[in-house]
Amino acid sequence: MEVMKKYILKVLTIFILLFGIFINSPNYSFSFDYENGHFETINSNLSIQGCPVKLKDGRILILDIDKNYIFDPKTNKFKETKPTPFGFSYVSNGKTFPATVLPDGNVLIIGNILEAPSEQFEDELLEPIKKTLTQYVYKNNPKFSSLNAEKRNSIIVTLYKAYRHLPENEKEKLYLPIIAKDNNLLKQYNNYCKLREKSRHALLFNPNSETYETIEKLSFNGNYSTLYTPIVKSNNEILIFSNQGEIYEYNFVNNNFIKINSNQDIHNIEDIQRLNDNELFLILYRNRYCIYNLNTNKFSSIYELPNPFSYKITEISLEDLKRFQKEI
């Protein structure tokens, strides 16, 4: 019981202190002394902010959007290191992010996935698409030409907004014929698509050589890397949780990347903490949680957390955790 209380305290502590360092506003960070219970302010001439990952040697890798840093607690100094190719995305104040340290000391990073071509070339496509929409309405609605300019423009703007909400494969039907007519734009488009495909691949960062290696077999079809959270399962395997309850497994030995579980009731995972070698504690949107068993690859039932402003952290939901252990 006492051990479980400590786990809950660790998982649900009000102040998230990740690996002993909390990255705050630019130029200020705080090192936390667990034994003596006090913070030490660390000043830097670098604008430090981002997601901290504790390396095997005790240093801290901080991943930001277009700059990365390494903090050495022995010297209390930061240094800038190589940025993640294509950048790094994370949700501000989020507790999960797409990076984790592997048993061999390397850092697995799911870098920023470049935006869809319709967004990248939005400025170039705006007027041609509006022109195409106008031609379509003229052709299919005889009354359109009798409307005044203001009403015609209002209809085209509404159609363009509808176009922007289409999935990318539907947008392509409209914008690809436009791009194909412009050789320069077509060349830019093809080059960008190649880069975007590369950005889908996960990376290995070596903190000693400060270099990146692409994992060719580990590629993601989604549009946002922030939807994925990697968790180490064993020396050779990692699990990758999607924000919508899908779980993938990647094996470094055979390069096998498969989907192993899915739960449609799991939405918006806000935090994942390891309870022990076999269980993960998942905090979900709207004060809910569940536990995932690494051996059985099963989710527990979803439970409600008490009001965060009234609960006693060390007494939270221990009965629910016991009930889950009986379920599996």
Oligomer: single chain
Roughly how many Å is the radius of gyration?
A: 24 Å
Which percent bin holds the helix content? 25-40%
Supply the number of helical segments. 7
Query: Any low-confidence stretches, pLDDT <50, length ≥5?
Result: 1-25, 309-318, 320-325
Instruction: Tell me the structural class.
Output: alpha+beta
| Major β-sheet annotation | 5 strands, antiparallel
Distance between the termini: 19 Å
* Strands, total number: 20
Query: What is the percentage of strand-forming residues?
Result: 25-35%
Series of H and E elements: HEEEEEEEEEHHHHHEEEEEEEEEEEH
Q: So what's the overall shape?
A: globular
How much is the average pLDDT? 82
What would your notes on this structure say?
This protein is 27% helix and 30% strand. It has helices at residues 2-12, 117-120, 122-140, 149-164, 168-180, 183-199, 318-327; strands at 21-23, 28-33, 38-43, 51-54, 60-63, 68-72, 77-81, 99-101, 107-109, 201-206, 211-219, 228-232, 237-242, 246-251, 256-262, 269-274, 279-284, 288-293, 298-299, 303-304. The strands form 5 sheets. Strands 16, 17, 18, 19 and 20 form a 5-stranded antiparallel sheet that branches. A 4-stranded antiparallel sheet has the order 4-5-6-7, with no helix packed on it. A hairpin with a 4-residue loop joins strand 12 and strand 13. The longest helix has 19 residues, at 122-140. The radius of gyration is 24 Å and the shape is globular. The two termini are 19 Å apart.
